[in-house]
Amino acid sequence: MSDGPLTGGALGTWIKLDTTESVEIMADAGFDFIVIDLEHAPLGLDTAARMISLARAVNVLPLVRVPGHDAARIGRILDAGAGGILAPHVDSPEEARQVVSATRFPPLGERGAGGTSRAGRWGLLPRAEYVRVGNEDVLCIAQLESVAAIEAAPEIVAVEGIDAVFLGAGDLSLSLGLSSGDERVLELLAAGRAAAAAAGKPCGAAAAGADAAVRAAGLGHGFLVVGNDATMLARSAHALVGSVRDGLRSRA
Q1: Structural domain harbouring 183
Q2: What is the spatial distance between Cα 136 and Cα 178, in angstroms, rounded to a whole number?
Q3: pTM exceeding 0.85
Q4: Angle at which helices 169-176 and 183-199 pack, to 10 degrees?
Q5: Active-site residue (options: 40, 69, 89, 221)
Q6: Of 18, 79, 25, nearest to 53 (Cα)?
Q7: What digits encode the pLDDT tens for the residues 122-159?
Q8: What CATH number is attached to the domain comprising 236?
Q9: Sign of the torsion angle spanned by Cα atoms 201, 207, 210, 212
Q10: What is the pLDDT of residue 232?
């Protein structure tokens, strides 16, 4: 994975709004990948499939954060053409192996064959290539967002089939009842990064804005998820209305 798509400061963003236009806008902005968020947004499989198709068309890597470790759901997302999954709350090597099993075809896992799907080019992709892509090119990313996950990070990143990890600072700090900038939280995040680096696997993080992203990159994260479509819209709307009202008041 040293030369894979999640290295060299690759930039992505969360997609949370139920509209494919978000994907097109983010691609036009220059993001390298998107993460369609099925965990914390009211998006369904049908919408995710359309977003994946559009992302492929505009040359942006479509990743999907699944809501859990359910093998059937993961299989359907991958057959819809996702370039990989982000699995939340992977707290142990056993859970990492469960996610890998759902993501990879035998003998690496237990994903079922669905070669007539988008992932199999609607039945036109030779079976051997369909399986190869699923086992070699599709990304399986474990999200570490608890003390247990950080403590088990060396074992989690060592699981065959885990391509990268993503540090969930929000849930980690929430579980500890601390702020995201607390020294204890920062120490745990550093331990997660160190485990990934020792295994030679990329480590990602979320950043709310440009300054936070630059700081995160300086800590050694190989890929960053910066902002999300919903908050970008909200902030722009608030800023625009505030600016116009300020201007109108100055003319009164």
Answers
A1: 10-251
A2: 38
A3: yes
A4: 140
A5: 40
A6: 79
A7: 999 999 999 999 999 999 999 999 999 999 999 999 99
A8: 3.20.20.60
A9: negative
A10: 96
